[in-house]
Q: What sequence folds into this?
Protein backbone atom coordinates (compact mmCIF):
# COMPACT_ATOMS: atom_id res chain seq x y z
CA UNK A 1 0.00 0.00 0.00
CA UNK A 2 1.26 3.50 -0.81
CA UNK A 3 2.22 5.73 2.05
CA UNK A 4 -0.20 8.58 2.74
CA UNK A 5 2.41 11.15 1.59
CA UNK A 6 2.96 9.39 -1.72
CA UNK A 7 -0.77 8.80 -2.18
CA UNK A 8 -1.47 12.52 -1.64
CA UNK A 9 1.24 13.39 -4.16
CA UNK A 10 -0.16 11.06 -6.79
CA UNK A 11 -3.76 12.15 -6.19
CA UNK A 12 -2.93 15.87 -6.26
CA UNK A 13 -1.24 15.53 -9.64
CA UNK A 14 2.09 17.07 -10.53
CA UNK A 15 4.22 17.79 -7.49
CA UNK A 16 7.43 19.78 -7.45
CA UNK A 17 8.63 19.51 -3.90
CA UNK A 18 11.27 16.96 -2.96
CA UNK A 19 9.95 13.77 -1.42
CA UNK A 20 10.31 13.36 2.31
CA UNK A 21 13.30 11.27 3.44
CA UNK A 22 11.07 8.25 4.08
CA UNK A 23 10.32 8.04 0.34
CA UNK A 24 13.95 8.11 -0.72
CA UNK A 25 14.06 4.34 -0.18
CA UNK A 26 10.93 3.74 -2.27
CA UNK A 27 11.31 0.23 -3.79
CA UNK A 28 10.88 1.39 -7.41
CA UNK A 29 13.28 4.35 -7.20
CA UNK A 30 12.63 7.96 -6.35
CA UNK A 31 9.11 8.74 -7.57
CA UNK A 32 9.71 12.46 -8.11
CA UNK A 33 13.29 12.57 -9.38
CA UNK A 34 14.35 14.26 -12.59
CA UNK A 35 15.47 12.10 -15.48
CA UNK A 36 19.19 11.84 -16.09
CA UNK A 37 19.21 14.00 -19.23
CA UNK A 38 17.03 16.73 -17.80
CA UNK A 39 19.54 18.52 -15.60
CA UNK A 40 20.99 21.98 -15.50
CA UNK A 41 24.32 20.60 -16.72
CA UNK A 42 22.71 18.65 -19.56
CA UNK A 43 20.75 21.66 -20.78
CA UNK A 44 23.80 23.91 -20.52
CA UNK A 45 25.94 21.42 -22.44
CA UNK A 46 23.37 21.08 -25.24
CA UNK A 47 23.16 24.85 -25.68
CA UNK A 48 26.95 25.35 -25.66
CA UNK A 49 27.42 22.51 -28.16
CA UNK A 50 24.73 23.94 -30.45
CA UNK A 51 25.87 27.55 -30.35
CA UNK A 52 29.59 26.80 -30.30
CA UNK A 53 31.99 29.67 -29.70
CA UNK A 54 29.25 32.27 -30.19
CA UNK A 55 27.71 31.45 -26.79
CA UNK A 56 29.03 34.08 -24.41
CA UNK A 57 26.97 32.94 -21.43
CA UNK A 58 24.46 30.23 -20.62
CA UNK A 59 22.76 30.18 -17.24
CA UNK A 60 20.33 27.39 -16.34
CA UNK A 61 18.51 27.36 -13.01
CA UNK A 62 16.13 24.71 -11.68
CA UNK A 63 13.15 26.73 -10.40
CA UNK A 64 11.03 23.70 -9.46
CA UNK A 65 12.50 23.21 -6.02
CA UNK A 66 14.94 20.53 -7.10
CA UNK A 67 12.75 18.01 -8.88
CA UNK A 68 13.91 19.03 -12.35
CA UNK A 69 10.55 19.94 -13.84
CA UNK A 70 10.91 23.70 -14.44
CA UNK A 71 13.92 25.68 -15.57
CA UNK A 72 14.90 29.29 -16.09
CA UNK A 73 17.34 29.52 -19.03
CA UNK A 74 19.29 32.67 -19.96
CA UNK A 75 21.45 32.64 -23.10
CA UNK A 76 23.76 35.38 -24.38
CA UNK A 77 25.18 34.88 -27.88
CA UNK A 78 26.57 36.84 -30.83
CA UNK A 79 24.39 34.70 -33.11
CA UNK A 80 21.35 36.60 -31.84
CA UNK A 81 22.55 39.92 -33.29
CA UNK A 82 19.95 41.21 -35.75
CA UNK A 83 17.61 38.27 -35.08
CA UNK A 84 14.11 38.77 -33.67
CA UNK A 85 13.39 37.63 -30.11
CA UNK A 86 11.03 34.95 -31.39
CA UNK A 87 13.70 33.48 -33.68
CA UNK A 88 16.28 33.68 -30.88
CA UNK A 89 13.99 31.67 -28.62
CA UNK A 90 13.30 29.13 -31.36
CA UNK A 91 17.04 28.70 -31.95
CA UNK A 92 17.54 27.76 -28.30
CA UNK A 93 14.39 25.65 -28.12
CA UNK A 94 15.56 23.62 -31.11
CA UNK A 95 18.83 22.87 -29.29
CA UNK A 96 17.07 21.55 -26.18
CA UNK A 97 13.99 20.03 -27.81
CA UNK A 98 14.49 16.65 -26.13
CA UNK A 99 14.93 18.21 -22.68
CA UNK A 100 11.87 20.45 -23.15
CA UNK A 101 9.76 17.35 -23.80
CA UNK A 102 10.65 16.09 -20.32
CA UNK A 103 9.94 19.40 -18.53
CA UNK A 104 6.82 20.83 -17.00
CA UNK A 105 7.82 24.43 -17.74
CA UNK A 106 10.54 26.64 -19.15
CA UNK A 107 11.36 30.34 -18.89
CA UNK A 108 13.73 31.43 -21.64
CA UNK A 109 15.53 34.76 -22.02
CA UNK A 110 17.96 35.52 -24.83
CA UNK A 111 20.19 38.53 -25.42
CA UNK A 112 23.13 39.83 -27.43
CA UNK A 113 26.39 40.56 -25.51
A:
Amino acid sequence: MLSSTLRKSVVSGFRCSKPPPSLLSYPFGRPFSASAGNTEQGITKAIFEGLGDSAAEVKVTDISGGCGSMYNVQVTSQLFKGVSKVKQSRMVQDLIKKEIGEMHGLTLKTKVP
User: Anything to note?
Assistant: Helices lie at 4-11, 40-51, 85-95, 97-101. The two ends are 55 Å apart (CA to CA). Residues 1-37 have pLDDT under 50 and may be disordered.
